[in-house]
Amino acid sequence: MTFGHDAPSLVNRIESVYFSLLLLLGSSSSPFQNCAILMMRIFAITAGAVIEAFVTLHEKGLIYQGSYMVNWSPNLQTAVSDLEVEYSEEPGFLYHIKYRVAGGSRDDFLTIATTRPETLFGDTAVAVNPEDERYAKYIGCLAIVPMTYGRHVPIIADRLVDKEFGTGVLKISPGHDHNDYLLARKIGLPILNVMNKDGTLNEVAGLYCGIDRFEVRKKLWADLEESGLAVKKEPYTLRVPRSQRGGEIIEPLVSKQWFVTMEPLAEKALHAVETRELTIIPERFEKIYNHWLSNIKDWCISRQLWWGHRIPVWYIEGKDGEEEYIVARCREEALQKARQKYGEDAVIYQDPDVLDTWFSRYMNDKTYYLCAFSCPLICLVYCSPDLQPNVSEQCCALWPFSTLGWPDVSSEDFKRFYPTTMLETGHDILFFWVARMVMMGIEFTGKVPFSYVYLHGLIRDSQGRKMSKTLGNVIDPVDTINEFGTDALRFALALGTAGQDLNLSTERLTSNKAFTNKLWNAGKFVLQNLPMQSDFSAWENLLAYKHQEAFNAAISDRAFRVEEGVRNEFDNEDSLLRLRLPECWVVSKLHLLIDLVTTSYDKYYFGDVARETYDFFWGDFADWYIEASKARLYQSEDNNIAVAAKAVLLYVFENILKMLHPFMPFVTEALWQALPNRKEPLIISPWPQTSLPSYSNMIKRFENLQALTRAVRNARAEYSVEPAKRISATIVANPEVLQYIAAEKEVLALLSRLDLQAMHFTETLPGDANQSVHLVASEGLEAYLPLADMVDISAEVQRLQKRLVKMEQEYKGLKARLSSPKFIEKAPEEIVRDAQDKAQEMEEKINLTKNRIAFLESTNLVAETV
């Protein structure tokens, strides 16, 4: 079997997994139902586009071949781009080595400090700062490179040498250090390569030839010590370059590669942001984008890999000159050009290297990414053995147009879909992918490929750490979906903020699973309280809260079609004003939410949309209106009030489903389809209408009712009133407030667990005010709860006195501890501060308990006197 034979079947297997995972995450299915057919189509299109792009750029003089320093991966045996190198601080050593001065005495030497002694075989100079008086006399002399049988290199002066680093003397190894390479090219130093592409040293290293670079470091240091040239080895924190793909240490090597000249392309991409043709969200990333493009380096696009698009370059057998190659779109074209230039006997062979996948296309056999599509939100979850994206292998600079038929700009796909509106992706690939797509899109089509770039954050563990097998903190999306559900995972990710990394924890997922369950249970409540679909009379009453003409059209000829008549739109002031306070409040709040959410969507504030909808559903609809509606549905003797409540429940819940659907497609679609006679899926239903009426005064009134309810609930909890016990209350307010509060006394009694028959509404203080708990709900709205109704006063006093004794004992112990100098001096600062906080909190509790005892005793005394 060969790679070429096995690769297609491997692709088919992996692509099948990709598509199944996309569907698992809630992505709408592709019109190409067979994923293999889809990918083969894309590959066929993009393959031609990649070749055309390479040839076109070469013809414009923007692609060239040259020997330059690249980041070399010895294990992968390929060059990697600067953006694929990650730097980490790791412990290492700084080696101090003697370089004898040629022609000097035995004690005449320079001591260099290096973190990579194995590269000294590639030294072509020793450099000092011209202002460093310690070494001024040696400038222009020769130094002897250790362990090289007396090879001499010049001692030069350069202001880039840091006098404070090490000894102030720098070894120059142009073949193995980026800065040394630039210096060598500037002043014309020779470039000497001492390393093979597998990370072993070559013949230049003499006796160390064929030994791994890190083994040479150990062996060379031992030999230097033995020869008396080793001065010292001291601990030092290294800035180590590692490959994103394999994690191995990158080796700077000079290698012949293919490059794209980036500066003219970058200028156009910068101009696109300056003129607002392209907007990056969040805006702060525009500065990062501009900085990178303003300091861009030429792009090394050749890779020494099996997988990828072959570079469309052919060489002539027997010709090895720098320009002895042919760039062509196919072998036949290359052969024709070669024979025209070199004769009919010319024999050609193709460059074995492939193009960087960021230039060509995407695919990897180890890493995949899952797009949790929600229109217009897309959340990305990266999944691999360590849950980290192998970003160099996923997408390409030509993707926005190469998949649409380019270079055939007359294709229907290209005309319809290019350019698009928005790209959503992770902020970590702003340079890898986004900037390159912008540059290539402008270069080849004259247009930016998208108008907006939305950058989401990266997913990290609960402590904000990068997920890895080493740390054991990997969260597998598939396992997560199996445990918590797709909707909970999507919503947890949607709550993040653009550009900010998100810490994903079990607690966060559990919370959002609870939210999903809450939505499901709310849906069950709404459905249970709707009329049977066949009950035309009940639906007629319910739909009276919508425009009558729409209802009449829906039931013409008794062919009752609920899906047309059940929309219950409170889209005018008259329909809203007919509602009672709780209903008017929740509909008004809904209308405000629709406007807010729509605006947030328009501004791409997806996290705000999720939070705003979450707060309304749970905080307003589920916790308050559903509970309030039970007074209408189960206690009201007025059928019209119950019908209105059902209409509002349905209307509000429908709109909640619509606003949550982009985040939670599965549960919302299931609940939508469960509503009476829904033939069309939720995903294609119209977005809620904006600019609908709302009444701020009704919202304020219900907020007063809420404040009163909370005050009563808090008092019940404070005095440990049994949940099932109904207590009496006197509500005191001005006539206007009393009117609307009293009108909703059934709701107040239900929500606060008050005795409906023992509720009194008055403008003056009740006669038993001195024997009651006084509550201030809001300005101008108060309540008095008779203590005798709430607790056995004598028993409560005894309970509080026992509690007071325990608290005073605990407080005494804390004060004794804090008064000990030994504790203050020796205990950690946070322990001392914690003890101080506990003592202060305990003192406050003691005072509150004493006040409550005094209040209860005085109340009891008054009651006995009476």
UniProtKB/TrEMBL annotation:
Gene3D superfamilies assigned: HUPs, Isoleucyl-tRNA Synthetase, Domain 1, Valyl-tRNA synthetase, C-terminal domain, Valyl/Leucyl/Isoleucyl-tRNA synthetase, editing domain
Tell me what organism the protein belongs to. Answer: Carnegiea gigantea
Domain Methionyl/Valyl/Leucyl/Isoleucyl-tRNA synthetase anticodon-binding span(s) in chain numbering: 585-729
Q: Does the keyword Transport apply?
A: no
Which PANTHER family does the record match to this protein?
A: VALINE--TRNA LIGASE, CHLOROPLASTIC_MITOCHONDRIAL 2 (PTHR11946:SF93), VALYL-TRNA SYNTHETASES (PTHR11946)
GO cellular component terms listed in the entry, alphabetical order:
cytosol
Q: A GO molecular function for this record?
A: aminoacyl-tRNA deacylase activity
Protein name per Swiss-Prot or TrEMBL: valine--tRNA ligase
